[in-house]
Design goal:
Structural class: mainly alpha
Protein name: Prefoldin subunit 2
Strand order of the largest sheet: 1-2
Low-confidence stretches: none
Mean pLDDT: 92
Largest sheet: 2 strands, antiparallel
Shape: rod-shaped
Family: Belongs to the prefoldin subunit beta family.
Number of helices: 2
Keywords: Chaperone, Coiled coil
GO molecular function: unfolded protein binding
Number of strands: 2
Radius of gyration: 23 Å
Strand content: 5-15%
CATH topology: Helix Hairpins
Number of domains: 1
Distance between the termini: 30 Å
Helix content: over 70%
């Protein structure tokens, strides 16, 4: 009776750990999607602004406030932000792969096989 209880407890613990891994992977994937979308928006805005004259008026949202700037003022800031997003995206992808590898090692170590239903 005690061994069944211990086995059930171990199975419950393994299931909880597996769920935690999967949830973490899902959260990282969600962040990756958000950053990709934001990077794409930056790219579209840059493609729109670059052919325009530098002294042309444009508007930019900064901390929820719409401010008037010129194209020549906005483009460098957009490029910097786009590069930063690219770095963040690379880091998130590395983090995702590392967590995925960690999950695979954990599955091997604990002899866990996932059955898809």
């Amino acid at each position: 009776m005690a061994t069944q209880s211990a086995a059930a407890k171990r199975q419950q613990d393994l299931q909880l750990q597996y769920t935690t891994y999967k949830n973490t992977l899902q959260q990282i994937a969600q962040k990756i999607g958000d950053v990709e979308q934001e990077a794409e928006e930056h790219k579209l805005v840059l493609e729109t602004l670059e052919p325009l004259p530098g002294d042309r008026k444009c508007f930019r949202m900064i901390n929820g406030v719409l401010v008037e700037r010129t194209v020549q003022d906005v483009i460098p800031a957009l490029r910097t932000n786009a590069e930063g997003l690219k770095k963040v995206l690379e880091d998130l992808v590395k983090q995702y792969k590392a967590k995925q590898d960690e999950l695979e090692q954990w599955k091997k170590k604990n002899n866990v096989q996932v059955v898809q239903s």
